[in-house]
Amino acid sequence: MAILARDDWYDLTRTTNWTASYVSEDELFPEEMSGARGIPASAWETYDEPYKTSYPEYVEIQREKDAGTYSIKAALERDAFVDKADPGWVSTMQAHYGAIPLGEYLATIGEARMARFSKAPGNRNMATFGMMDENRHSQLQLFFPHANIKRSVKWDWAHKGLRTNEWAAVAARSAFDDMVSSRDAISTAIMLTFAFETGFTNMQFLGLAADAAETGDHTFASLISSIQTDESRHSQQGGPALEILIENGKKDEAQQLIDVAIWRSWKLFSVLTGPIMDYYTPVESRKLSFKEFMQEWIVAQFERQLLDMGLNKPWYWDTFMRDLEITHHGMHMGVWYWRPTVWWDPAAGVSPEEREWLEEKYPGWNKRWGRVWDVITDNLLNGREELTLPETLPLICNMCNIPITHIPGDDWEIKDWQYEHEGRLYHFGSEPDLWCFKIDPDRYKGHLTIVDRFLAGLIQPANLEGALQYMGLTPEEMGRDAHMYAWVEKFRQAKAAAA
Ligand SMILES: [Fe+2]
Ligand SMILES: [Fe+2]
């Protein structure tokens, strides 16, 4: 029997829609789950995904990908790369694994929402594959770190992290819930696949894969490149949904969803990926700076795509461009200083040669952040470690759940964007964070940041120790300086040599 080529049957089979007779169309596709926005089914049937695959093709390719990644892991296991790796790189992996695998699981829910409720048949079809993709990503990224639990319990945060009230976990859950698991199908297609996956996961997975290959971590490099091949397929679900919204007079709504999702993703990446790329990864293994990765993967990518579609750059683009130079340096300093509150060991990344790199990539770094690190370095050189450890909690943004930071020193212009709503005073780290809240206060108003919970008496005893317990951090899980201050000794030697 002759087998038809995929092109000959694909459009017909995947566009199969039916007219519901036992229930109304609204019962089958409730608006709050579907997000069709009054656009008729006939318009949604024109949805045309750029990447097409069939189930047999999908299964075959995925099987090959899994086989490749698992066999590299097995082959390199005896090599025990982790035992030889720079502690900064180990921290990079521990931070990644604690934040990402269960976020992938949440993405399964987002894909499932589209697979069931999107009125676009092509979207439902692709999301079914996307759902299986995300399940694979969770499984891989739970399994790979598991092999290292014998080395440190910190690797177990792949499973544990997102289930705790650790502050970075709260921030990640808040952003993922907002973009991935609590929206209608079409909003999910735009926020999760178009805004988050097109640019940001590309950067985390391809950018980090490049750094991993440079450090010699071929297991991690192959794992995350394998995941990214799925992402680059299913991230294409957002584009055709956007086209239908624009054609049907919903451009402003579409633009708003994109603007919220890009901003929320950016803030999360500024605290997770920024420090990893510019401070934890050994300096000789850094392919590009975080800013350069952002410019290549996010700025160029979105500017081109948005303008091609007839959309605009988000209104806060100038603020975003300025913050690319700033935000993650403040986040890094905060994470390092509050190191007992994270499950990985932050690498300071400010030895003399690292500071040279930072100054080269971010002219003015020494004048801005270097002067604060000078004080920290001086305290450590003089045996005053206690002055480099936290006793209080920082001011946290009510939208992104991460600290409100800015440039220290001469360029200091920090602002707490305050907003009162229904008798409660909210604090935001930036104008776009406040803007996200104002669009839909009911969605966000009930959430308590870690600091709100502390002030509400939910964290007992009401001190740093109580907060660490609340965050689920045991003493062996709490972060310490990744290199146990070995970098400080380089300053001592330099001083001695100069004397
Ligand atoms: Fe994924
Ligand atoms: Fe994905």
* Lateral strand order in the biggest sheet: 1-2
Report the count of strand segments.
Answer: 2
How far is it from the N-terminal to the C-terminal residue, by CA?
A: 87 Å
Stretches with pLDDT under 50, minimum 5 residues: none
Beta-strand percentage range:
under 5%
The radius of gyration is 24 Å
Bound molecule kinds, no repeats: fe (ii) ion
Helix content: 55-70%
The string of secondary-structure elements, in order, is: HHHHHHHHHHHHHHHHHHHHEEHHHHH
Mean pLDDT: 93
Largest sheet: 2 strands, antiparallel
Count of helical stretches: 25
Molecular structure report:
The protein is mainly α. The chain contains 25 helices and two strands. The chain has helices at residues 6-14, 25-28, 31-34, 41-44, 55-77, 81-84, 87-99, 101-117, 121-146, 157-160, 167-181, 185-215, 218-234, 238-247, 251-280, 290-308, 317-323, 327-337, 352-361, 365-381, 431-439, 441-444, 450-455, 464-470, 486-498, and strands at residues 417-421, 424-428. The chain has a two-stranded antiparallel ribbon with strand order 1-2. Strand 1 and strand 2 form a beta hairpin. Helix 7 runs antiparallel to helix 15 (251-280) and helix 12 packs antiparallel against helix 14. The mean pLDDT is 93. Bound molecules: fe (ii) ion (2 copies). One fe (ii) ion binds next to helix 13.
